[in-house]
Amino acid sequence: MLHVVNKSPYERDSLDTCMGYYQEGDAVLLIEDGVYGALAGGKAVSKLAGKDVSVLGPDMAARGISEEKLADGVKVVDYAGFVDLTVAKDKVQSWL
Amino acid sequence: MKFTIQVNEGPYQHQASDSAYFFTKAALEKGHEIFRVFFYHDGVNNGTRLTTPPQDDRNVVNRWSELAAQHELDMVVCVAAAQRRGIVDDGEAQRNGKDATNIAPGFRISGLGQLVEGGIQSDRLVVFGD
Nearest-CA neighbor of A74 among A41, A52, A44? Predict the structure, then answer.
């Protein structure tokens, strides 16, 4: 399953909830304000450890976040990469 | 692969309709099929042709209409959500005694069954909202 999280973990607990359902083989994509969850040094980063996590590049850029500011192991994708992720996983869950 | 896209927010309320638009465009550019785009809740506000955003701002409604014309997209506005928010086509104007319509080109008003069908007929349902 692809989990799509669009809320900052410092605003709502959707990233937390999502991680409770994460299973082996799943992936997480952080979009919109969800990208704040991938900031290195942030409190939320420990939740991402060992998970397959990507961040939507245009939403990062819109918030002034460059790749160097991301936690280790987090991948950056564009909208085409977003589409590829939805194809690669059998279901898409938006944690709204 | 076949996709249905659900949009739950209005263009000036949340980033969801931008995200949905760019996702839909990227999927089409990759050669995927968009079975339907379903506008629900405040998302129905994506479908009024009467908005006039400033010229240096993106035009969310026209952008959808143009994409629909290019790719023959089926863009469906939820009827119950539309009635509440005053999104009207000819049929709705007649049924509810309204003196005008405002549905934008490429959009049509229909029921929630269209969302269910989209979920069944498509390989993936991707939801954008708050």
Answer: A52
